[in-house]
Design goal:
Blueprint lengths: L1 H20 L12 H4 L19 H4 L1 E9 H4 L6 E11 L2 E10 L3 H37 L3 H36 L10 H35 L5 H38 L8 E9 L8 E6 L2 E12 L5 E10 L3 E8 L6 H13 L10 E3 L15
Antiparallel strand pairs: 1-2, 1-8, 1-9, 2-3, 3-4, 4-5, 5-6, 6-7, 7-8
The protein binds 2-acetamido-2-deoxy-beta-D-glucopyranose (NAG) (3 copies).
The site of one 2-acetamido-2-deoxy-beta-D-glucopyranose has 4 residues, from loops.
Amino acid sequence: MALRLGCVMMMIVLLAMAGRGSDATFTNKPPQSSFCQRAEASRQCANPPTVDSDFKVEEYLGKWYEIGSTAAFKLLSEAGLVCNQALYSSANGTLSLLNSGLRVISRLAAAEVTAINVAARGSCAAAREVCYQLPALIELSQSLSDPSLGHRLASSAQAADLALHRLAADVSLVQQANGDISQANYSSGGRTLQSSIDVINRYTKDAEEHQDAIADFAVELNKIRAEATKESKEAQKTLGSAALKIGASSAGIEVGLKALEVGAKYLMSNGQPIDNGGVSSVTGTITQPNATSPAKLEVAISVAKSPYWIIALEKAKDGAYSAALVYSCQQGVGKSLFVLSREPTLEMTTLAAFLSKAESLGIYNDCEDPFLLTLQRGGSCGQPPLSM
Ligand SMILES: *[C@@H]1O[C@H](CO)[C@@H](O)[C@H](O)[C@H]1NC(C)=O
Ligand SMILES: *[C@@H]1O[C@H](CO)[C@@H](O)[C@H](O)[C@H]1NC(C)=O
Ligand SMILES: *[C@@H]1O[C@H](CO)[C@@H](O)[C@H](O)[C@H]1NC(C)=O
């Protein structure tokens, strides 16, 4: 599966390159990997349209199963929980929510799952910082008066871009494995806590090699600057400042990766599944603050308010809402994406269509926030029946 995905991605890269090649204004600009291409868009919240036209909140009430959510939410608010469900209800004109899940690892282990998520997000964010430096360097590589120096700069920037892309893929796989630990998802394929921790360690090691390549890139930039004596002061300044920033970001990536190793070690001693850990739940209220956009809800849990935008809905034959794609993003606070279903399962085709819709709207789930499936065990999942 991973291999096939790799092939598809390679084909996309080749197609993109072929497209550029046939362009009359082809300038030898190296194509950027998808990870860095999305760097700018990842700086801010997307502003996707919501399903306002015929949305009726009364029909949205009732019980929903969470089919999956993105890592920052799943490994923080839902760390250590499986079978996450939401019950939306209306009483006396007030809309309420009850989110619940079944605890399967200890609270201590759940805190470590969160710490690993924070470390993964940190290294991913530092990798993005390197991405931000690349366009100016690629631009500069075209305008240096010494073409061989320009070529060196372009090819080292391209190599860094690829290293970042691979590092991001590794960190995503770490997040997936952390999701398995968080949900004690060991029932298939003879997997265990140990094997999930091995996965974290393996991809962290691999990511460290790509981080080394980024550190080398900073060194190479300094060398290029030292040789660029005939170039403009401005070009030298660009090289020097990029080297400095990339060196600092590389150190940031390294800190995050080291924290992953430490977290994995702690999890090995604390992350064992627990039986019958009990139901964990939170309550809150739901409002519709935007009169012109009824599907832009807002959820308040204790003092924290967050947007709850329904950006896709699937309907059953009788017109009832059967699945929903929900986006929540607050600049500087965080983003998440949820898929809900009236049943504990969802057709893979519906899920795939939802996720590709999100992507087409500029909502990316790269290494900062990959989409993780929620372990549902069908029906009540061993929980007492939900009621308000
Ligand atoms: C709703 O109103 C009824 C009658 O006024 C009251 O008995 C009930 O407690 C209220 N329910 C909630 C959830 O506030
Ligand atoms: C309400 O929604 C509309 C349409 O989506 C949007 O243009 C507007 O900015 C929103 N208003 C507020 C206050 O968020
Ligand atoms: C549990 O692990 C299996 C095997 O890797 C995977 O296919 C499945 O998607 C995982 N389930 C969840 C809910 O993460």
